[in-house]
Amino acid sequence: MLPILTALNIEKEEGDYKDKSGIEKKIKRWYWSSLFTQNYSSSVESQITRDYIEMKKWFADDNQVPQVVNQMDNEINNLDLDGETSSGSAIYKAIFDILIIKGAKDFNSFDLPEYSILEDHHIVPQSWGRKMKLHKRIDTILNRTPLSNKTNGEIINKKLPNEYLQEMFKKTKNKEEVFKVLESHFISKP
After folding, report:
1. 14 lies in which domain range?
2. pTM (predicted TM-score)
3. Which member of 93, 129, 139, 140 has the lowest number of beta carbons within 10 Å of its beta carbon?
4. Which pairs from 75-82 meet CB under 8 Å and 24+ separation?
């Protein structure tokens, strides 16, 4: 997607458009639509051409919404996130990216982890899921979150959430701080 993102950004800057921030919002909407519809999983060359032409029309006319954005609007409520188990899929990566953009804080330090040391952590351990014969469900993106490699490997390791959550609450006097960390991973209060 880098070639078309580059081309769209050049078009935004060099084109005769008055509302550059509106164009930026359209590019972001197109980007997320493309990820969640997995439109760049195959036939990339033809998709790039079609999207570039449709995006230029949309830049000039708000009523010329690209096919991929309309597709996303129609499909978003039917996404099967429970079935997203391949870390290589566009949807899986998009959800993981959203967690990072949202500011998912580390379960141990309670700070933003360095992105260079992030790991794809199972919230409920993979070993427990396999033992319970939850093979596909344990690897779903709904059971994954970014954590630092130290927290993942040394502190949480194969512990169940009821164990490591207790440790998180013991570590701080302010329970709300723990809830804020969990919320940054889209884990709501009980």
Report:
1. 2-76
2. 0.84
3. 93
4. 75/36, 75/37, 76/36, 79/36, 81/140, 81/141, 81/142, 82/137, 82/140, 82/142
